[in-house]
Amino acid sequence: MSDIQIVQTLAQKISANVERVILGKHNEVELALIALLCQGHLLIEDVPGVGKTMLTRALAKSLGCSFKRIQFTPDMLPTDVTGVSVFNQKSREFEFRPGPVHAQIVLTDEINRATPKTQSALLECMEERQVTVDGITYPMPQPFLVMATQNPIEYEGTFPLPEAQLDRFMLRLHLGYPAPQDEMAMLDAQQFAHPIDQIDQVARADELTHAQRAVKDVYIDALVKEYILALIEATRKHPDIYLGASPRGSLALYKTAQARAAIQGRAYVIPDDIKALAGAALAHRLIVSPAARLKNVDARAVVDELLHSVAVPGSRAA
Predict the structure, then answer these.
(1) Rounded to whole angstroms, what are the CA distances from 315 to 222, 229, 262, 270, 271?
(2) Do residues 183 and 235 share a domain?
(3) Using the 8-state DSSP alphabet, how is residue 22 labeled?
(4) How far apart are CA 227 and CA 245, in angstroms?
(5) What is the tens place of the pLDDT at every residue in 275-310?
(6) Predicted model pTM
(7) Are residues 176 and 38 in the same domain?
(8) Which residue of 1, 16, 313, 318 shows the fewest CB atoms closer than 10 Å?
(9) Is 195 left (phi over 0), alpha (psi -120 to 50) or beta?
(10) Residue 132: in which H helix or E strand, if any?
(11) Are the CB atoms for 17 and 199 separated by under 8 Å?
(12) DSSP characters for 172-236?
């Protein structure tokens, strides 16, 4: 079995398992898997009660990974996230007690309820996969994924995520309300017990690590790379955008396109992969100008507009 087939089989097993809990959201589950395969982080922005926490728990159970949940509140301190050094009376030395961020899959629930000081505690571990406390650096476990949730409609008592932190999320997704038939199936499934208690581990962490390496070998033609850069450049020059996508955005689009191709059983990326992922990979990185905001211009709508206006590369002979 080739590496691409291994990635595809692994993704199908995990996706089928997670979709026993998250009904009717195949595309959203696939986006979460793509972030996982690219060693990226995921921001889930949606209204309460649509399954944001359950998606994270189902992924962790499917992989048998260690899972920690951090409930962000305004009175949290950075040490509540990263850990703290405590003086041991017996040994007469300081001992490091790791915080909840030291897990393979970390759910940061309602991340925008914490103060900017506490939010910034995640910056180092998300980008460099390490935490520095009292001058000592502690590496994060592998694989490592931060899945953050935030409520888009409640602004009182919240602190908007700064651009530096938004940029560290590889993808942003919206689960949305389930379709009526899926909600009916959910009512039946949860009559006696929650499906999250009935799903089992279907893959191992070392299988995921192998798949993460295999995804990097997916071929991207120079024309497709130019298409990625043309989209990124267009966000920086758009009249309604105050701040365009960063180089981290182009890397996110590059890596996630490789993962999507592998999940679909291809050893090469096509422009359709870029189009399918551009909204989730770029929209949260764009800052709409104040004048455009008055006209209710949305960053996702700008990305959709650019996908229609930026020329797609044609094929060429090998």
Answers:
(1) 11, 17, 20, 10, 10
(2) no
(3) S
(4) 14
(5) 999 989 998 888 888 888 888 888 888 888 888 988
(6) 0.88
(7) yes
(8) 318
(9) alpha
(10) strand 130-133
(11) yes
(12) EE---PPPHHHHHHHHHHTTTS-GGGT----S-HHHHHHHHHHHTT-B--HHHHHHHHHHHHHHH
